[in-house]
Amino acid sequence: MFLKKNIGAKIALLPMIIISLTVFVGCIIYSFIYSLTNSKLIPVFNYVGFDQYERLFKTRKWDVAVENIFIYGFVFTIGCLVIGFLLAVLIDQKIRAESLFRTIFLYPYAMSFVVTGLVWKWVLNPTFGIEHSMHLWGFTWFELDWLVNRDLAIYAVCIAAVWQGAGFVMILMLAGLRGIDEDIWKSLSIEGVPKWKSYIFVILPMIRPMVITSLVLIAAGVVKVYDLILALTSGGPGYSTTTPAMYVMENFFSRANLGQAFAASIIMFISVVCILAPWAYYEFYFRNREAKA
Amino acid sequence: MEANGPRPKHLSIGRIGMYCFIIMCALFFLMPLYVMLVTSFKDMDEIRSGNLLYIPKSLSFYAWPKAWSQACTGFVCEGLKPGLVNSLKITIPSVIVSVSLGAINGYALAFWRFKGAYFFFGLCMFGAFIPYQVMVYPLLKIESALGIYSSLPGIILVHTIFGMPILTLIFRNFYASLPIDLFKAARIDGGNFLKIFFYVIIPMSTPITIVAVILQVTGIWNDFLLGLVFAGRDNQPMTVQLNNIVQVDYGVVEYNVDMAATILTSMIPLAVYFVSGRWFVRGIAAGAIKG
User: For the whole prediction, is pTM greater than 0.80?
Assistant: First the structure.
């Protein structure tokens, strides 16, 4: 009876179940197994234990990649959240031409990472870009050589990424702000709380779900960063802006070093799990308990 | 999504300052688009000697036809035109298949719960956060085994797989917010799984479908990595071709052609966004993406 009742739903969910098991779970197991081998051009099962991981952690390039992803993750996340929130608050001030401003802040989100990278590569071009413009205007001291500077190139990537993603965070935050009851604003203004204080100490905690959603969406995007850097710096100068994703792709497709690529990808996966675990715990366990209590 | 209450009547110093700030922000956000546009209409002499931020002294239309049909990617010089066709061939079926799958998953999960369904839903959501790099190579192996690697069906399947988690989630959330009595009434009237889906649920799904379609059209159109790996040489999407055109290692770099090519590549998602962005914003405000 039970089975018959739901047979339609079970058939309908079959693709999801198959994909989840074979692709999402299967691929991780496959990658993990072959990360324990010394596969080069083709995957062969030649067990070498954790050698690939040991080699990975000794590779200078991997260190740089990890360092970069931390810088990028930190600056991009904070940048998107702060700018997104700020823009949402500004838009929420009953300004004129609200939809025009909203459109302007959100349109970069429709651009691909490749396009974003190429545009900013041109704007930040040290010979013809903004630096050149400033020199023509007489600001000869002005320097904007981030793309050719090993220490600063990763921040150029961050700027491009924040430009692309901040508008989306703004929309999410704005949806939260618009859900705030007008009475709360009235009572805050009767109490004489300054507006900026209300936003930071009262409203921000109230739209916490939206903040968390934004945070999770941004964080999930951080590890995926690949095309943006490929288009903007190609990982350079040298390999100063390389990321774990690039390291993996390089070892898969141009250096024919499969074992190493698998090991690096598994480390990427584990770091994502470590970052997401607290959120998932909160979302699924803590919330359920709260709901029951 | 409208602001509550009236707009203040008079402009105080504070509000003038606020307007100045928001206009500066807007200029910063617009600057790259502006630079792209003006650069594409300049000739190379002006690009080398002139100011990046100035409008062209004389309009040059050299770059656009070149970017469209003559620019070289590696050995072939056909511009971006074949890329546009490929991107359409990839995007349209991928969007249809992935959105349909997401809708039916969301419907089954919201109304026809059975034991274990939510376990697999959790597994599916977990897939949204696995870095592509972990899955790219094994998936390539799976597709070669199925004989569809580096073909149109191959890339469509990949987009369907990677679009599934988020689409399933937003459809499930949307359907879960519909009144359950409606579904119960349809059940009592003898509707089965498919009948209820087609006659009751689909007619109510317009707002969420718009959000899903916009997400997928822009997402798939803008994809680079998956197109590069799975589409094969003959089906390379526009983003891949754009990158190939711009990142040539030889010859003179023609920035005006590069910028024209960049604009051409972002044309479709920008158009989609400008035409339907309002509904997208509304859909999000209505709870398509929840906390």
Answer: yes
Range of the domain at A44: 36-292
Q: Which residues of A touch B146 (CB under 8 A)?
A: none
Chain A residues with CB-CB distance to B247 below 8 A: 231, 234
Tell me the residue type at A154.
Answer: I
What is the rounded CA–CA span in Å between residue B190 and residue A65?
Answer: 59
pLDDT of B291 over the 70 cut: no
Place of tokens 């998936």: B139
d(CA A84, CA A96): 19
Report the pLDDT value the prediction gives residue A292, as an integer from 0 to 100. 56
A271-288 pLDDT per residue, tens: 888 888 887 777 777 666
Domain count for chain B: 1
Point out the residue among A133, A175, A245 whose CB comes nearest to the CB of B51. Answer: A133
Cβ pair B285:A178 closer than 8 A: yes
Residue B179 belongs to some domain of the structure: yes
Q: Is residue A195 part of a domain?
A: yes
- Residues 6+ positions from B12 with CB-CB distance below 8 Å: none
Task: Please give the tally of structural domains in chain A.
Answer: 1
Q: Which two tokens stand for residue A270?
A: 């584990």
**Distance of residue B277 Cα from the nearest chain A Cα, in angstroms:** 8
- Tell me the pLDDT tens digit for each residue of B188-197: 888 888 888 8
